[in-house]
Amino acid sequence: MMSTFVNREDLNQALETLKNGGLILYPTDTIWGIGCDATNPEAVEKVFALKGRDKSKSMIVLLHSDNQLAGYVHDVPEIAYELIEATDRPLTIVYAKSKNLPENVVGDDGSIGIRIVAHPFCQQLLQRFRKPIVSTSANLSGILSATSFDEISEEIKAGVDYIVKFGQQDKSEGTPSVIMRLDPSGKFEFLRK
């Protein structure tokens, strides 16, 4: 059972790091992630550099509430809200056309993957930060994703500016989110179940 108590100092350190364009290593509702301010293209570049990730691959961003979707997605189909509410697993939805996000966060076709989180630390961090945060698995590109804090490589740990303390003791294995592509007409397809 994961603790829900969030240490204020831990939260403030993560918040300051994001505000200063730094990278954090943090637990999410799926697996541990590398995060940064999703609206800061320089911070996003640091994530690509640390992971050795191909820049043609888009990033997933996290929000704390579906009320924020309209700020980052053109034409949010009504069914998106129903899907988010109905899911019992973390759900990343790829929307056709993003807005208010830098080019290096979105896909070549302008699409963006967004997940509304229900994780105690992420929720509070996102509420206080008031902007989307990038979430990408805490691993080097081409290496399997770490499912717990203990599996994260020293190279990744050394490459971030702050490592969140919350959740480090949690030994349960995280699993990646369900991913679906949702078109403005409301048609959707699963990319990962």
Architecture overview:
By secondary structure, this protein is of the alpha/beta class. The protein is 25% helix and 19% strand. The protein is built from five helices and nine strands; from the N terminus they run H-E-E-H-E-H-E-E-H-E-H-E-E-E. The protein has helices at 8-19, 41-51, 78-86, 120-129, 154-159; strands at residues 24-26, 33-35, 60-63, 91-95, 112-116, 133-137, 162-163, 178-182, 188-192. It has a nine-stranded mixed beta sheet with strand order 7-1-2-6-3-5-4-8-9. The mean pLDDT is 92.
Write the layout of secondary structure elements.
Layout: H1 8-19, E1 24-26, E2 33-35, H2 41-51, E3 60-63, H3 78-86, E4 91-95, E5 112-116, H4 120-129, E6 133-137, H5 154-159, E7 162-163, E8 178-182, E9 188-192
Parallel strand pairs: 1-7, 3-5, 4-8
Antiparallel strand pairs: 1-2, 2-6, 3-6, 4-5, 8-9
Helix pairs in contact: 1-4
How many angstroms does the end-to-end distance come to? 24 Å
Molecular shape: globular
Number of strands: 9
| Helix fraction by DSSP (H/I, runs of at least 4) | 10-25%
Number of helices: 5
Overall mean confidence score, pLDDT? 92
Amount of beta strand: 15-25%
